[in-house]
Every structure is written in C-alpha cells, then in structure tokens.
C-alpha cells in the first residue's frame, strides 16, 4: 500500500472531529493498510486517519512490536494517571511530558466490522488515548498545562516545518465516505 503524506499542525483536518465509519468495505481495509504502512514508515507508535487527511474514526498503533487498528473507538479510562513523554507525527521533533490515564479499555471494531476490545496500560494506553484524541480534533499539546503548552508552542514556532503548506494529495474515495460529501 502507498505511504501517505502526514498532515502537520496547522492543517484544519487535524482540528475536525472525524465521522464514524459506517461501511466496513474494501476501501476501509485499504485505509487501514495505508495507515499501517505510513505509521511503520514514519516510524510512529500510532497514526489516526485525520493525520493522512481522512476524516474517519480509524487509527493504527505499533507498541511493543504489536501492530493493530481500531475503528469507531469508545474508551473507558482508569482514574489512575501516568505522566510521560509524548510526541506526535503531526508535530515533528517535539516530545514533552503529558498526563494521561494509566490504563484504558477500548471498544470498537476491526476493519471487517467484528467487535474488538483492547485493554492496555502505560505506553499502549497512551497511544490509544492519543490517537482517539486525533479523531476528536484534539492534539496532545491541548492536554498540556499552561507552562508546558507555552514551551511546546515556542518550540513549534521555531521548527523548520512550521508554517509549511499542507501537502497536495489526491482525494481518495475513502476520504469522503460517511461525510456527506
């Protein structure tokens, strides 16, 4: 499957809530394959569909050698928290401490429409929360306290990539499916 360009901070698709997947078809399986290949090529611990310009509730992860995907996730978070380093493929070269739930139970579907439950803690829990945030138009820098966010924004404004125009890409059929376009 082709590696897709990753959208960077500033692209409006990253701030738009993704639509639920309604068709579990070949196009969805192609999207999952594109996400997986792009994530592994980057390399990253996860990648959500909006990060490649597709406004659907799908993400992939690669944590501890386990590669997976989840469609239409619904999360139950632990009350216990973890503070740890977090970064994002859409905000290159920035890693900063971010508070997250320590563990998560994620329910959703696989690419064939079969129900799936993923239970994870620590890094997997962080990745699932991070990618689900992308589906809601939330970036990890939004989760930072005021001082950490100020520090992050300073680093972002100084980054070489900041202010670059979004890549021009073809609009694939799955980019508009379920969006009424």
Automatic annotation (TrEMBL):
Entry keyword annotation includes Protein biosynthesis: yes
GO molecular function: metal ion binding; peptide deformylase activity
Main enzyme class: hydrolase
EC number from the UniProt entry: 3.5.1.88
A Gene Ontology biological process term: translation
Pfam families per UniProt: Pep_deformylase
Gene3D superfamilies on file: Peptide deformylase
Keyword annotations of the record: Hydrolase, Iron, Metal-binding, Protein biosynthesis
Top-level taxon in the UniProt lineage: Bacteria
Co-factor binding comment: Binds 1 Fe(2+) ion.
Active site: 131
Coiled coil, from the record: none
Cofactor annotation: Fe(2+)
Catalytic activity: N-terminal N-formyl-L-methionyl-[peptide] + H2O = N-terminal L-methionyl-[peptide] + formate
Residues annotated as binding Fe cation: 88, 130, 134
PANTHER family, A to Z: PEPTIDE DEFORMYLASE, PEPTIDE DEFORMYLASE, MITOCHONDRIAL
NCBIfam families (alphabetical): pept_deformyl, PRK00150.1-3
Family label: Belongs to the polypeptide deformylase family.
Described function: Removes the formyl group from the N-terminal Met of newly synthesized proteins. Requires at least a dipeptide for an efficient rate of reaction. N-terminal L-methionine is a prerequisite for activity but the enzyme has broad specificity at other positions.
Protein name: Peptide deformylase
Source species taxonomy: Bacteria, Bacillati, Actinomycetota, Actinomycetes, Propionibacteriales
Originating gene: def
């Amino acid at each position: 499957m082709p590696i897709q360009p990753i959208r960077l901070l500033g692209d409006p698709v990253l701030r738009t809530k993704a639509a639920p997947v309604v068709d579990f078809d070949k196009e969805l399986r192609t999207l999952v394959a594109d996400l997986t290949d792009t994530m592994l090529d980057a390399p990253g611990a996860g990648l959500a569909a909006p990060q490649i310009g597709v406004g659907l509730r799908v993400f992939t992860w690669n944590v501890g050698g386990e590669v997976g995907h989840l469609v239409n996730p619904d999360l139950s978070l632990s009350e216990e928290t973890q503070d740890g380093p977090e970064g994002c493929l859409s905000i290159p070269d920035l890693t900063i401490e971010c508070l997250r739930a320590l563990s998560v139970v994620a329910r959703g579907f696989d690419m064939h429409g079969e129900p799936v439950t993923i239970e994870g803690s620590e890094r997997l829990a962080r990745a699932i929360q991070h990618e689900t945030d992308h589906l809601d138009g939330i970036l990890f820098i939004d989760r930072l306290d005021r001082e950490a966010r100020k520090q992050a924004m300073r680093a972002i404004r100084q980054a070489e990539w900041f202010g670059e125009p979004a890549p021009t890409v073809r609009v694939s059929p799955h980019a508009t499916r379920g969006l009424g376009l």
